[in-house]
Amino acid sequence: MRTVQRLELDGTLLKYLIKKTRETTEFTIATRLPVKARLAALLTYIVDAGDETTGPSIPMTQRELADSIGMSLRSVAGTIADWKELGVVRTEGSGMVIAESDFLRRLARSD
User: Fold this and answer.
1) CA 71 – CA 107 distance, rounded (Å)
2) Residues 6+ apart with CB under 8 A from 104
3) What is the pLDDT of residue 11?
4) Helices of type H across 1-111
5) Phi and psi torsions of 91, nearest 5°
6) Phi/psi of residue 92, each to 5°?
7) CA angle (97 as vertex; 18, 99 as ends), nearest 5
8) 90 Cβ contact list (under 8 Å, min separation 6)
9) What is the pTM (predicted TM-score) of this model?
10) Mean pLDDT of the chain
């Protein structure tokens, strides 16, 4: 603790810990959401964690997405197919691009 105080990192460290606690809490809550809301929450989380160079892209396969949130590949693939028809997402290589992030944000907040 003395090193943290000596280097004047206590404020920065506290902000970091609060941010990580909030993220963990939000993701724990998201695991209790219905399937489509859970996937929407994951996708918006990934987009928000990206930067200007990645934009609204999701560099993960459907299998990786399913494994990340404890869903079956079939559920994820079906949900993504529905969203593709609505123009919410589009596939690009082995990943996808989010075209309507507001739609996903609303869905992630729904019960």
Assistant:
1) 17
2) 40, 43, 44, 88, 98
3) 61
4) 2-6, 10-30, 35-49, 62-69, 73-86, 101-109
5) -85, 150
6) -150, 105
7) 90
8) 84, 96, 97, 99
9) 0.68
10) 78
Mention every residue, 6+ apart, whose C-beta is less than 8 A from residue 5. Answer: none
Reading the block at residue 5, the tokens are: 């105080």
What pLDDT, on the 0 to 100 scale, is given for residue 53?
A: 56
How far is it between the farthest Cα atoms of the chain? 57
Structure token digits, residue 11: 């404020």
Output the six-digit token pair for 28.
């724990």
Residues 6 or more apart whose CB falls under 8 angstroms from that of 64 comprise none
β partners of residue 90 = 97
pLDDT given at position 4: 45
DSSP letter for 59, please: -
Tokens describing residue 13: 């460290």
